[in-house]
Amino acid sequence: MNSEIKNILEAVKNGELSVENAMLELKSEPFKDIDYAKIDFHRKVRQGVGEVIYGASKTAEQMIGIISVMLENGQDSILITRLSKESAEKIKEVHNIKYYEDAKIGIYGDLKTPDGIGKIVVATGGTSDIPVAEEAALTCEFLGNDVVRLYDVGVAGLHRILGHLDEIMSASVIITIAGMEGALASVIGGLTDCPVVAVPTSIGYGAAFNGVAALLSMLNSCASGVSVVNIDNGFGAGYTASMINHMEVKK
């Protein structure tokens, strides 16, 4: 069940919140139209996570306005993806965000205390894949997950990934991030009993086709339990992995 709705219902059950106030929380204005954006306040109620700002192609002024409205309506932690350094500096003049340059991520507020069912491993084929990996890892941490980073453990030297079998075997979810031929997803998928979320990256020479070769390799993986997100989509992988790591038993 959605954690936000569950918390409201638990508060009513425990006498901490009246039925009337619970209804007000559930019926409150679902979004606000600020001309250039319609900000979804019920995202957290529906999905358990508040709206995330996609920073690419937005001006710093637009993002400042969106953040201001989010804060006014009770969203005290905000994730901004694909945020340029220049825009981040302008936003910092108004809102106290922390900027992670490698990942191109901005975060307002503190990272959540990890409350997932286990650990999420983020593994990359090479060092060049780290920016996408950091987008995934920081998304996971923002959403309340304990993250283990295993970088530069690609198939060009299999001993490197085999040296981390304990972390792989004990993971709740594994995100594999690789360009070139994208083989890391199949290798890890064949070693673990947990879900694997594969991210093809646009790293590689001409025939890698800016990540298409890795995407097709991952889609054609013979290892069971491997799912694939879009090219360079570290955020999507992190979000999906977090959902898996927070699954409840449904009775």
From TrEMBL:
NCBIfam families: LarB. It comes from Peptoniphilus asaccharolyticus DSM 20463. It comes from the Bacteria. The lineage of its organism: Bacteria, Bacillati, Bacillota, Tissierellia, Tissierellales. This is PurE domain-containing protein. GO terms for biological process: 'de novo' IMP biosynthetic process. Residues 118-250 form the PurE domain. One of its GO terms (molecular function) is hydrolase activity.
